[in-house]
Please model this.
Amino acid sequence: MEKTKRVKVVTGLKCNIKCVFCYYRDSLNAPNRRYNEIIHDLLYARRHGISVVDFSGGEPTVHPDLPKLISEAKALGMEKVCIISNGVRLSNREYLKTLKDAGLDEILFSLHGSNEETHDSITMVSGSFKKISEAVANAASEGLSIRSNTVVNRVNYKDLTNICKLLLKFKPVQVNFITINDWCFAKHLVDKFMLEYFEMSGMLKKACDILEPDIKAVNVRYIPFCFMDGHERFVCNHRQVPYDLYEWVPRVRTRLEVQNNLLRYVGILGYGFLIGGAFKKLFKMSLPDVLDESIVEALRHWFYKKSAGCKKCRFDKICDGVENTYAEKFGMQELVPMLGAPINDPIFFRKHRLNYQRCNN
Model:
């Protein structure tokens, strides 16, 4: 199967909202990255085969050079340019037109509620729901591709079906539901916002059922397969990422993360190669694929845990398990081994949906 050629390039951690679950809450007033640093990342990405870029933050629209960066990305050969945005500035249609004129193709909106009360309570900024609603409408009117991210947490999980109905009005090409996790950067999330998978799984399944007839690219990220019984085709965890054209090339994404210097990057690669077992693929894959495998296995072994029963599960080889902090808070007794013939192909359930993406990406 074809693998993704997309990556994230960070414009800085500065942001004009302050989501309650943000990994970088302590850095939201940090200065924007310098223009030349971002261009350096774009050049690195192009040298490593990247043809689609998602500008991310923080919030990329607060960077004064964003139109120039979009234009330069296109000049460097990026076939598609996307921004990941909370929509606040994009509610100004003239500004959005400026980005489109520079070469913007796509916007991945961060939408966390179907109404003002829910969304604004998560972003901690009054009026942000009104702004993102206007921004999505502007993007649709301008003919830009629309995608969405929703971080599923204790505040909004009962609102997922209403979020779906709202999104369907704008015909997004992709919808992501990201189950809340701290990734070691946001321990403040645990007590107030993290909820158990069994609490959210029913709503996630209903949301997927609502979207599937019209949107084939629907993802549920960072959830064990056993909680999506009958809906496994929507699960996109670390083993599935390299085959999803809307996700990021692991080896390039990890190298370009703002918190990763070269030494840390090599350490992650080495951990996944040796401890994660990626070395077993050394003579079965190309070197870039082995590097991707090393990153994937590093993340799976570093941040996730499995119960003893997981070894008996047919999904063991393609499932991440539960995030470390989740395991510390809730334990792993929820995990129920799904019996049957073992599945080794990470995209066993997703092949028909990935073929759809290839025709529409």
About this structure: The radius of gyration is 19 Å. Residues 253-346 form one domain. The chain has two domains: 6-250+353-360, 253-346.
